[in-house]
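Moderator note: this is an archived Q&A kept for reference. The question asked for a predicted structure of one protein chain; the sequence and the answer are reproduced below.
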Amino acid sequence: NNTQYTLSGTRFFDVTDKVKSIAIRRGKNRQLDTYDAGLANVVFINNDRTFDPEYPDSPYAGQIIPRRAVRISSEGEIIFTGTVDDWNLSYDPSGYSEASAACSDGFSLFRNQTLSAGTATPQLPGARVQTVLDNPSVNWPTDKRDIETGTIQLGADVIAENTNALDYLRSVSNSEFGDLFISKTGDLVFRDRNLVTNPNFVTFADDGTGIAYQQMQVVYGSELLYNEVSLTNYANVTATATDVASIEQYGVFTLTETGLLTQNSSDLVNLALIQASKFSQPEYRFESVTLILDKYDSATQRTLLDLEIGDIVNVKFTPNGIPPAITKFAQIIRIDHDVSPTAHVLSFGFSTVEKNPWTLSDPAFGRLSAGNILTF
């Protein structure tokens, strides 16, 4: 019969009415890059000192501090989950002031965590990720994990004292040629190399056959051209694959990776062959599409906001409106939001999904005539 008290967990407060702008950056720019921490910057109007850490009459007095949890949503869809790293305050003599919350997702925690020395147990990549997350120095919540099994065997590598947790998790992901990132809902996500298409995949199109976009960026060049691939594992076993036809046409472009945790030399050879085939030609890539979210109805907005890093979409582009249209499947590798009082601008960055392992019955990767390759 007294006041209610929160005994545990995070209690969120809706501060939308104080927000001036939001900028969110999640993902990476190219397929061979690694995912880094997702970032968000929220600017609040702070004329009444609500977000002033030195103001005792603030309704959040004592809580305007680093490491407070942040969740950003639009149309009921969560688009960012993380914590505040810094509060930045600006004041104008006129009495107008702003408070900016610089935020990042869970990768910023892994960057500051280290592993104890030891020898790993041979296991699949998904199990290795789970082992790292269970490490007492990491202790990542079990309900914040979305981890696939993986396809290759990792070996009994020696983990040195004070090995950075994020660096090691990336080594696991690179060994699989998979993806490792923090989702918009704050889960640690590990995806293996085998891409899967949702049969109801979203189509972006400029011809009325999909969701219209306001801007398209295309790149075509050698930034991901590699026709000689050299991979070395933790036991100093090296596998090399080359594409002779590509070398004859473009010269030698070498991709070198070391410290992979792959146990079997056959898996190392197969991965080198996959990469040499996948990256042996210059890439024509739909780099990004930009959409003004406010232009769409609520259902379409929710469809767009529901998309996540790793999702496969179909993109149609008719340059200057001159047929024929160019149609490609693409994987989302970057999601940016810029929210102001006048507009919510949403941008998706892509990697091409040509020359991916053939997948039985998949609508995108189940066709050998579409540039897919037989897996090993």
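Archived answer notes: The longest strand covers residues 77-91.
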